[in-house]
C-alpha cells in the first residue's frame, strides 16, 4: 500500500525546492522569463526524480497571474497557482497514459484540445508514462503537434523515451532528468523527519534511500509506511523487515533470468542494481539463499516445512513454481558458482565481473 502523504505534503511548490536538477531548472526558467515556450516538452528519467513535479511547476509558472515578467517562480498565491496546488485547475489536464488507453480517452483528448483555455493563458496537458500511449493516442497527439493551437502545451513524462515513436521525439523539446544522489535523498528524508517530529536512526534513513533506487517518491512513501508501522520511530531493524519483502521481488526477477537462461537480461539486471547502489555482496547472499530454497523444494516439496519461517506463503507459492522450472544439475552448478562469487566479490576490481562471468559461462 503506497503511503503518499509525505510525497504530497512536501512536493516542491517552487523551482528552488527541486532537488538536483539545476541545469533543467535553469533552462526552463530562462525560457519562462524570455517567453520562449515550446508546445511540447519531453521529460525523461528514472522513477521519482521529479519529472511530473517539474511539469506541474512549469504549468504553474506559465499560467500564474501574479508572476512578474522578469520572474520565473510561480507566485503560489493567485487563483491559478492555488487551483494547481489543490489539483482542481481546469486548464491543467493530467493524464496517466498507463491507465487511459482506450479509444474514448483519445477522443476526449482530441476534443479537449480544440477548446480554448477556460481561465488561463495556456491549456496544459501533462501526460505521464507517455511511452504507454496507444497508437491512436500518438496519432492524435502528432496531429496536434504538427499545427499546435497557440494556447496548447504538452508535457510528456516517461521513464522509457526509446519507446516513443521518432515522429513524436522529433517534435518535442527534450529534458533528461538526472538520478538523485543518495545524500540528497537522505537529506530530504531527514528534513521531513524533523518537521514531522519522527525519531530516526541515520542508518535507517540511508537504507530507505538505498532501497528506493534514486527515487524520491518511493523513499518518501517508504518513510511514511515505516513511520506508521513503528509509531514514528524509524529504526534500521524496522526498515530491514519492511524491505525484506521488496528484496524478494528483486531477487525473484534475477532468478527468473537464470531460469530462462536469458543472458542479456541477466547481464542488464546485474549492472542495473549495481548502478542503483545495491551492495552486490548482500545481493549475492540473497540469491544464494533463494536458490537454496529452490533446491530444497526440488529435493522434496515436503521440505517446504523447513522454509516456512523464512518465507511468506505467497513467496512459498512462487518458490514452488520456480522449482519446477530448474533442473537439479543446473541448480547445483549455479549454487556452487554463487558461493565462489561471494569470495571473489572481495577481490575483484570490477564488482559486476564475477556475476558476468558466471552468466556468460553457465546460462
Ligand atoms: Zn500565481
Outline the structure in words.
This protein is of the alpha/beta class and 363 residues long. It folds into three domains: 156 residues, 3-Layer(aba) Sandwich (Rossmann fold); 53 residues, no CATH class; 117 residues, Zinc Finger, Delta Prime, domain 3 (Up-down Bundle), CATH 1.20.272. It is globular. The model has no long low-confidence stretch (mean pLDDT 90). Bound molecules: zinc ion. The site of zinc ion has 10 residues, from helix 4. The site of zinc ion (ZN) has 10 residues, from helix 4.
Concise summary:
This protein is α/β, with parallel strands linked by helices.
For the termini, the CA-CA separation is 36 Å
Cα radius of gyration in angstroms? 24 Å
Average of the residue pLDDT scores: 90
CATH class designation of the largest domain: Alpha Beta
Describe how the helices and strands are arranged.
Blueprint: H1 5-9, H2 22-34, E1 40-44, H3 51-63, H4 79-85, E2 92-96, H5 103-114, E3 123-128, H6 135-146, E4 152-158, H7 166-169, E5 173-176, H8 182-196, E6 199-200, H9 202-211, H10 216-229, E7 233-234, H11 236-260, H12 263-275, H13 280-299, H14 304-307, H15 313-325, H16 328-344, H17 353-362
Parallel strand pairs: 1-4, 1-5, 2-3, 3-4, 6-7
Helix pairs in contact: 5-6, 8-9, 9-10, 9-11, 11-12, 11-13, 12-17, 13-15, 13-16, 16-17
Zinc ion (ZN) binds at residues 64-67, 74-75, 77-78, 80-81.
Amino acid at each position: 500500500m503506497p503511503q503518499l502523504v509525505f510525497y504530497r505534503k512536501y512536493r516542491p511548490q517552487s523551482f528552488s525546492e527541486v532537488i538536483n536538477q539545476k541545469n533543467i531548472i535553469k533552462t526552463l526558467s530562462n525560457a519562462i522569463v524570455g517567453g520562449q515556450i515550446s508546445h511540447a516538452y519531453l521529460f525523461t528519467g528514472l522513477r521519482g526524480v521529479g519529472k511530473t513535479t517539474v511539469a506541474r511547476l512549469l504549468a504553474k509558472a506559465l499560467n500564474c497571474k501574479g508572476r512578474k515578467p522578469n520572474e520565473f517562480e510561480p507566485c503560489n498565491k493567485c487563483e491559478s497557482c492555488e487551483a494547481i496546488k489543490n489539483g482542481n485547475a481546469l486548464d491543467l489536464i493530467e493524464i496517466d497514459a498507463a491507465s487511459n488507453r482506450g479509444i474514448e480517452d483519445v477522443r476526449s483528448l482530441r476534443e479537449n484540445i480544440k477548446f480554448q483555455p477556460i481561465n488561463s493563458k495556456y491549456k496544459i496537458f501533462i501526460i505521464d508514462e507517455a511511452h504507454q500511449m496507444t497508437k491512436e493516442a500518438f496519432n492524435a497527439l502528432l496531429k496536434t503537434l504538427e499545427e499546435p493551437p497557440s494556447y496548447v502545451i504538452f508535457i510528456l513524462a516517461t521513464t522509457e523515451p526509446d519507446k516513443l515513436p521518432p515522429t513524436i521525439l522529433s517534435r518535442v523539446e527534450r529534458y533528461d532528468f538526472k538520478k538523485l544522489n543518495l545524500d540528497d535523498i537522505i537529506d530530504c528524508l531527514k528534513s521531513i523527519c524533523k518537521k514531522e517530529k519522527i525519531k530516526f536512526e541515520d542508518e535507517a534513513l540511508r537504507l530507505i534511500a538505498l532501497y528506493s533506487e534514486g527515487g524520491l517518491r518511493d523513499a518518501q512513501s517508504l518513510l511514511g509506511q515505516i513511520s506508521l508501522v513503528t509509531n514514528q520511530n524509524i529504526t534500521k531493524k524496522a526498515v530491514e523487515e519492511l524491505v525484506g519483502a521488496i528484496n524478494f521481488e528483486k531477487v525473484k526477477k534475477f532468478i527468473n533470468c537464470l531460469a530462462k537462461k536469458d543472458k542479456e537480461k541477466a547481464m542488464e539486471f546485474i549492472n542495473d542494481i549495481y548502478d542503483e547502489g545495491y551492495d552486490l555482496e548482500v545481493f549475492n547472499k540473497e540469491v544464494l539463499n533463494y536458490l537454496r530454497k529452490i533446491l530444497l523444494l526440488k529435493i522434496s516439496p515436503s521440505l517446504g516445512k523447513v522454509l516456512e519461517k523464512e518465507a511468506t506463503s505467497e513467496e512459498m507459492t512462487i518458490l514452488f513454481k520456480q522449482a519446477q522450472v530448474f533442473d537439479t544439475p543446473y541448480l547445483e552448478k549455479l549454487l556452487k558458482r554463487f558461493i565462489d562469487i561471494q569470495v571473489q566479490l572481495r577481490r575483484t576490481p570490477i564488482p559486476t565481473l564475477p556475476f558476468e562471468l558466471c552468466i556468460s559461462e553457465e546460462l
